[in-house]
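Researcher: Sequence recovery benchmark, item below. Answer with residues only.
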């Protein structure tokens, strides 16, 4: 595993942003890191939620360590930019940091779409984090985002998606046929192979689409996204172990802004990544306990698939999507097989260490 460098030379900033998943403890760091006053803006859609717990922890970390000299202000609700436009606006320098989801604009980041593939073995949160952070520092991925004057900072650690919907629940592979489901990236492609009709829309548009019958079900990160966007209020069923995939939604930074930071501030961002991971994990686990209790009390029907049914679903919607993605991405010059093998091999290695 690549060792983390605490001081990041500006010339290596793009690659160094995606340094190792593990950060040494800061117990021997000075109480306050001296430096100039710097204020950054961060663009994210939706309300504060477990999705934002990581960047909130990172922002708190840099503010506390600098005595308030370096601040990252979070702008929720798409106040600065719509989610699909965040990467373009990072390139323009409209703000310094932002959340993106690669499946919102797959043509802009074809290599990193590997993390949007369905049924990847990333259910364990620690494995998920380590694999994401390693893919983020792959040379092809670093260069892919450099073209947008962007560097990858950390993963939002989106949990595996599940389905929630209205009307007849989806209990067998045959039940997917003709069902309109909001699903992004590889998850959407897997559901299409199962016979569903996947649709793409921002998370903020999903409530109205489900309420009006434009979609029959929603694929969202389990459980907090359903609660954050109040999908449970208009649904009568949900799945608990389908796990068709997880959207890859990293935080990106404008490289010009990052390179202008003094080295000690760059190091604080690296140092705060482990705090971000711990905050993400704790927030998700707390949300799962709270939300499941509320949904069961509400009377929503819980769909748990048998191993046999899951195997049939994965056979139809898993490997074929991987094969198609590798073929199509390699035609675009992406080292797709190398990236997919990196994900699968590292997932196995990290899981064996658990």
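Model:
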């Amino acid at each position: 595993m690549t060792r983390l460098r605490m001081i990041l030379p500006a010339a290596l900033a793009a690659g160094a942003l995606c340094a190792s998943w593990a950060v040494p403890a800061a117990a021997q760091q000075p109480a306050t890191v001296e430096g100039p006053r710097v204020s950054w803006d961060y663009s994210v859609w939706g309300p504060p939620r477990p999705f934002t717990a990581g960047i909130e922890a990172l922002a708190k970390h840099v503010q506390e360590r600098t005595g308030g000299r370096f601040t990252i202000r979070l702008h929720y609700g798409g106040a600065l930019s719509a989610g699909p436009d965040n990467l373009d606006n990072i390139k323009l320098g409209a703000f310094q940091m932002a959340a993106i989801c690669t499946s919102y604009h797959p043509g802009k980041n074809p290599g990193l779409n590997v993390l949007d593939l369905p049924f990847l073995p990333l259910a364990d949160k620690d494995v998920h984090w380590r694999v994401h952070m390693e893919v983020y520092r792959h040379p092809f991925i670093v260069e892919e985002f450099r073209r947008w004057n962007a560097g990858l900072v950390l993963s939002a650690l989106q949990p595996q998606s599940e389905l929630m919907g209205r009307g007849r629940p989806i209990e067998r592979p045959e039940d997917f046929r003709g069902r309109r489901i909001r699903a992004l990236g590889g998850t959407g492609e897997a559901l299409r192979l199962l016979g569903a009709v996947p649709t793409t829309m921002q998370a903020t548009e999903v409530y109205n689409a489900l309420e009006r019958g434009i979609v029959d079900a929603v694929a969202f990160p389990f459980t907090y996204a359903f609660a954050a966007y109040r999908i449970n209020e208009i649904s009568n069923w949900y799945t608990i172990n389908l796990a068709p995939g997880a959207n890859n939604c990293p935080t990106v930074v404008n490289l010009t802004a990052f390179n202008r930071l003094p080295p000690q501030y760059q190091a604080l961002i690296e140092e705060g990544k482990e705090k971000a991971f711990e905050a993400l994990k704790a927030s998700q686990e707390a949300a799962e306990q709270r939300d499941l209790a509320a949904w069961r009390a509400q009377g929503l029907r819980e769909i748990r698939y048998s191993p046999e049914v899951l195997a049939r679903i994965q056979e139809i919607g898993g490997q074929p999507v991987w094969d198609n993605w590798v073929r199509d991405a390699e035609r675009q010059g992406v080292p797709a097989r190398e990236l997919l093998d990196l994900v699968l091999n590292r997932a196995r290695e990290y899981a064996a260490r658990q």
